[in-house]
Amino acid sequence: MHKLNVLVAQYPNQEAVFRIIPSRVEAALARAAPSMPPVEFAWCATDDPAFGERVAAADAMIGFRFPTEHIASPGSALKLIQVAAAGIEHLLPLDWLPRSIALATASGVHAPKIREWATMVFLMLHSRMPHFVSAQRAHAWSKAYSSHIAGRSALIVGTGGIGGAIAAAARSLRLRTTGVRRNVRPTRHFDTVIGLDALDGAVAEADFIVLAMPLTPSTRHIMNADRFKRMKPEAGFANFGRGGLVDQDALRAALLAGTLSGAIIDVTDPEPLPSDSPLWDAPRLIITPHLSCDDPESYVPRTLDLFLDNIRRCMDGRPIRNRVVRSRAY
Amino acid sequence: MHKLNVLVAQYPNQEAVFRIIPSRVEAALARAAPSMPPVEFAWCATDDPAFGERVAAADAMIGFRFPTEHIASPGSALKLIQVAAAGIEHLLPLDWLPRSIALATASGVHAPKIREWATMVFLMLHSRMPHFVSAQRAHAWSKAYSSHIAGRSALIVGTGGIGGAIAAAARSLRLRTTGVRRNVRPTRHFDTVIGLDALDGAVAEADFIVLAMPLTPSTRHIMNADRFKRMKPEAGFANFGRGGLVDQDALRAALLAGTLSGAIIDVTDPEPLPSDSPLWDAPRLIITPHLSCDDPESYVPRTLDLFLDNIRRCMDGRPIRNRVVRSRAY
Q: Which pLDDT does position A86 carry in this prediction?
């Protein structure tokens, strides 16, 4: 039987927590056996001059950042690219992607970690932690009481792997959950699902607004000055998606004006946030450095399990999990 | 039937959230009926020249701060003093308290709110939120990963109403819980219970150390330089009790030296923390202004329910709930 050639595209300076190393691959193969066909893993740096050739010789590839100009080449065997991230905005537009190659995201891999992080973020927004952190900077003992969180409402924009995990966290805190999705239909963990056309009204009603959707040309700055102004002054905002979903100047202006009570954002535009950005000192804003979804123990193992499953699906002619739909760009 | 005279001792500048106002008393009486004997509530400011007389004429009193020199007076009818707080360190020593008067705390009233706050604090310490808040002040994008919280260990010093609620929160996050109490015996919500003599060893093992005990002469500075040095460098610390339980200079030195990963404290010594205190700027420390236990919606109602129950117990000759034991000073 032909051994499948699998290439790991390694980009320079990747953080250890995300590295797909041989020991993790071996462990994933052991978990996947015995139903796993024979595969041969190889590694290549994305800045290696031979990278294009190595891609063309592979049946499947896993990576995060890679030079897309090398993907479509005559006689290439490549059938599957597994992106080791939930978002692929750094690979857009997808004009480099041949129709013969399935591109898959790691959507869902983050769910267990994000659920824990989201529980914390809801409780922090509810308990006015952004206010206390700002008051502490000013050496001010400034009370702000909160009651129980149960019964408040969470508006979660995006109902995919991450949005669903956030909604599960919200429900375990006995929040009411409203999800925003393109195709409105009943969705697990959500009490109500609405379309993007109903977003303005929902923003004005919610106690917590959380972004958890892909960044595409149509979602860029979905939270803009107008929408921040619509928020209730006691409401809190969080971004688990991508920095570009938010007009950061508008967020800062809204915090300065007090049209919302506080915000906790895990993503910024750009990243890392430059040290001279005025966002660092915006009042009642807590910034974490894009790791709300990243569990150092489980992230790579779960991504590899997904990748191996997708390799099997590819071979069997079954649908690929998390396959990117070109027209919606995620 | 003789109507019981109940006095509400109001101290000046009390925050609205803690005020025992007629509408709240009426609501509590309605909840307690029909088993409640007739009572007559009256109000008196603690700085009123007639305060001493009013106390002597009352059968029961509820208050937080009051002049203790007026309590023991010849011919006084007073049998019960309900303190509207879990801690009575501001009333120590108890040399002013006649043996004929039962003094009760509001221990347990805070449990539902504290459970929510403790869940947040455990997740914040685990997720390195004190680190991120410090990094943000320095405009630094500084990653620090965390995995799942389940399986970590929480050492909770104090197993009373607040400590028990913290342990319940810890258990719901699937932490292992160790409680420290004077009389070592199996205690609800705790996997293990140890005595104060075993504290040094336990401090060195715990992932989270939480203080939730009364401040008495024997617990003052229970967390001192030596104990902070014993902590694991990745461990987090929280104080839900009283500021005086912690040697604050030692806490600051430990944070500067990195012998613990971060701290979240809801209480300081003194309170409010003076604006020139160096504690405000200690690294990886989050300070909240003594409200972790205070639910503006339920605090006074639950305290009044306890008080009315204690009045009934007093009349029936049954044991008072939360009666302060003079020898242990809480």
A: 87
B40 and B52 share one domain: yes
- Show which of residues 259-298 on chain A sit within 8 Å of chain B, judged by CB atoms: 271-273, 275-277, 280, 286-291, 294-298
The alpha-carbon gap from A54 to the nearest alpha carbon of chain B, in Å, equals 32
Catalytic site includes residue B242: yes
Residue B43 φ then ψ, to 5°: -120, 145
Same domain, B128 and B232: yes
Preceding peptide of B93 cis, ω within 30°: yes
A residues 139-158 lying closer than 8 A (beta carbon) to B: 139-149
Tell me the average pLDDT across B146-161.
95
Verify that A115 and A159 share a domain, yes or no.
yes
In angstroms, what CA-CA distances link A164 with A179, A283, B287? 9, 29, 32
φ, ψ of residue A24 to 5 degrees: the values are -70, -35
A17–B289 C-beta distance less than 8 A: no
Residue B1's pLDDT is what? Answer: 52
- Our CA-based measurement puts residue A65 at a distance from the nearest CA of chain B, in whole angstroms, of 19
Task: Please check whether residue A214 is in contact with residue A220, taking contact to mean a CB–CB distance below 8 angstroms.
Answer: no
Active site residue A297: no
CB < 8 Å from A in window 104-123 of B: 112-113, 116-117, 119-120, 123
The pLDDT value given to residue A312: 95
- Counting one residue from chain A and one from chain B, the pairs whose CB atoms sit within 8 A come to 120
Which of B2 and B63 is assigned the larger pLDDT? B63
* Per-residue pLDDT at A296: 86
* Cis amide linkage into residue B272, ω under 30° from 0: yes
The residues of chain A scoring below 70 in pLDDT are: 1
Query: Both B17 and B64 in a single domain?
Result: yes
Is the domain of A48 the same as that of A122?
no
Q: What is the pLDDT of residues A90-137, one digit of tens each?
A: 999 999 999 999 999 998 888 889 999 999 999 999 999 999 999 999
